[in-house]
Write a structure and sequence with these properties.
The chain is mostly helical. The protein has helices spanning 2-21, 32-43, 46-77, 83-122. It is 85% helix and 0% strand. The model is unreliable at 26-30 (pLDDT under 50).
Length: 123
């Protein structure tokens, strides 16, 4: 579950950056797949918007299956007396991995993007 969350958050953190790099207006919409369909249709090559939407949908399905299956495994494996505590600890680990997945990428990528924008604005 931790790996599922880490991968999903890392990819979704980079989605607006990727869209911007390919000419789409990454507006920070609440649904990147909707944003991809709306903005890539006229700015990206014809097949890329569809591929992008399919890839994001598959990411969502995989994330959902990973969390549901992980929750079921933990629930079945933990004795009733410690089940709530076990699930709570896993939930905390999932939340921390999500923060790490997004935070590491933001720290690694965004300063370069902001710096490039600052340099181009000065010209």
């Amino acid at each position: 579950m931790v790996l599922t969350q880490l991968v999903m958050v890392a990819i979704m953190t980079m989605t607006p950056v990727h869209m911007h790099g390919h000419g789409a207006a990454a507006s920070g919409s609440s649904s990147p797949s909707t944003s991809a369909r709306c903005t890539c249709r006229h700015r990206c090559p014809a097949g890329s918007a569809v591929s992008f939407a399919v890839a994001l949908a598959l990411l969502g399905v995989g994330w959902n299956l990973g969390l549901v299956a992980g929750t079921a495994i933990i629930t079945d494996a933990a004795p009733p007396a410690t089940r709530a505590r076990s699930q709570g600890l896993v939930d905390v680990a999932v939340a921390v991995s999500g923060a790490a997945g997004g935070g590491v990428l933001v720290l690694a990528v965004v300063p370069g993007i902001v710096g490039a924008r600052d340099r181009s604005a000065r010209r």
